[in-house]
Amino acid sequence: MREILRVQKLGKNLGGYHGETIDIRAVLRDLIAAAQAHGWTKEVYHAADGFEWFALHRSALIAQPSTRIYISAGIHGDEPAAPLAALKLLQANQWPENAEIYLLPCLNPIGYTLNQRENVGGIDLNRDYRQPKAAETRAHIAWLTRQRKFDLYLCLHEDWESHGFYLYEINPEAKPSHALKMIEAVKSVCPVDLSETIEGRPARGGIIEPRVNPAERSDWPEALYLIQHLSRQGYTLEAPSDFPLTVRVKALVAAVNVALGI
C-alpha cells in the first residue's frame, strides 16, 4: 500500500492528453516480432498511408479450446498505454492453454502519429460502429463478421481525466464476473478511481455496469458492437492517463492477466 501512495498524478492533462507519446511504427514492429517469435499468425485486414491494420491469432494448445478471447487496443491515438500493454502481453507469452486468442493491438495507428484521439479524418473510431464512416472501422467490422462468437472481449483504453483505473463490465447473462478480481490486481500497481460517478455513470469501487440498449445509441463504441453481435461478456479497461506511462501499462496488463486466469 505504501508503494501505491507514492504514485502521484502528473498534473499534465489540462483539457486533453499531454503526457508521454510513443513511436507507433517502432511499437508495431516490436509487436510483430514478438508475435512471430511465439508462433502467432498475422492477418492484415486493412492498409493505408504506410500502415497495416492486423489481427494476431494464437491457437489453443489443447485440441478442444474451451474459450475464445478477443483483445483490442489502440483505438484512440492519445492512449499510448494500450498498444504497449499488448506488446508486454505478447513478450511475456503467458496465456491459458485452453484459450484461442485474437489480439488486435492497434486499431488507429495514424492517430498515434498525430497524438490525437480521432483518426486522420477527425472521426472518433470508438463511436463509429453502428453506421461506420471511417474506412478502418468498416474494415474492422468486415473482419469481425468473419469470426465466430467470442466468450470474452477485453478492450484496452485510457482516460486522461480519470483519478485512477476503472473498468466497464457488460455481462447481461450474469456470467461469473472478473471485475472485482481485476480491480484487486490493479490496486497493487496503480490507484483505482473510487468516485461514485465516473464519466457520468454510477460506479462502485472502480466498476461501471452500464445499462445497455443498443437501439438507443447511434454512436456505437467497439464494445457495444461486440456485445450486440459477437460476445455476451466483456470489459473495457481504462487506465488513468495522468499517471506515469509505466504505471498505466502495468495496470492494463494486470487486469488482462486476471481475466485470462494467469
What coarse outline follows from CA principal-axis ratios? globular
CATH topology descriptor: Aminopeptidase
Q: Tell me the name of the CATH homologous superfamily.
A: Zn peptidases
Q: Mind describing the biggest β-sheet?
A: 8 strands, mixed
Helix content: 25-40%
Strand order of the largest sheet: 1-2-4-3-5-10-6-9
Report the order of strands and helices: HHEEEHEHHEEHEEEHEH
- The name of the CATH architecture is 3-Layer(aba) Sandwich
Uncertain runs are 1-5
Just give the CATH class. Answer: Alpha Beta
Plain-language structure description:
With 262 residues, this protein is an alpha/beta fold. It has one domain: Zn peptidases (Aminopeptidase, 3-Layer(aba) Sandwich), CATH 3.40.630.10. The chain is 30% helix and 21% strand. The strands form two sheets. It has an eight-stranded mixed sheet with strand order 1-2-4-3-5-10-6-9, with helices on both faces. It has a two-stranded antiparallel sheet with strand order 7-8. A hairpin with a 2-residue loop joins strand 1 (41-48) and strand 2 (51-58). Helix 3 crosses helix 8 (245-260) and helix 6 (179-187) packs antiparallel against helix 8. The longest helix has 16 residues, at 245-260. The radius of gyration is 17 Å and the shape is globular. 45% of the residues are buried. Mean pLDDT is 95; it is low at 1-5.
